[in-house]
Design a protein that fits this description.
CATH superfamily of the largest domain: HAD superfamily/HAD-like
Distance between the termini: 18 Å
Shape: globular
Strand content: 5-15%
Helix content: 25-40%
Order of helices and strands: EHHHHEEHEHEEH
Largest sheet: 6 strands, parallel
Number of helices: 7
CATH architecture of the largest domain: 3-Layer(aba) Sandwich
Mean pLDDT: 91
Structural class: alpha/beta
CATH class of the largest domain: Alpha Beta
Oligomer: single chain
Amino acid sequence: MNRTYHHLLFDVDGTLLNSREAFTGSLEDALDRHGIAHGDISPYFTRTLAQFMADYAIADPTFLPSWNADYIARLAQAPLFDGVEHLLLALHEAGVTMGIVTSRVHDIALVGLAEKGLAHCFAEVVASTDVARPKPDPESIHLYMERHQAAASDILYVGDALTDRQCALAAGATFAAPAWAPLPPELLSDALGMDQILALASGNKNL
């Protein structure tokens, strides 16, 4: 990559926020409370809640509210990955337009970031409930492009899952994986460090 980008989009969970334990712990506890047998639920960390509910055929109307309250409480306390706060503030202060593209539902898209005073860094949030076809479909990035009159060639999307890469490439954007976070083997070749991302940001003379 030898160019700059005016728009940086980020996934949240596993990219900015180290929230895997918050997700898996709250979901396992909810399943146990409702007597639902389960195996390894960690793959759902990078999928939508709608996919999980469908796969487990959960029809109990009390399941979602009880899980959601516990999950939000845990998310609010989940730590940022080391260096993320500096990265976001530096990009924001340099005038780089940033957005969130996440598989979370819209109402909780910024939980964990807002509590740390970082919500103001993002000009846009596109959650799974904002589109008909969430990641890996490119609709989320297309919606961001429409709202901000952004060209795909001017967007760098940073995420930790294969669905993030599929979404970015299908939209015509550039993809990078966060080198500071645990990554699946298939994304290691896409990994960029924070200094590299800062260098790719437009207006980086102020960084």
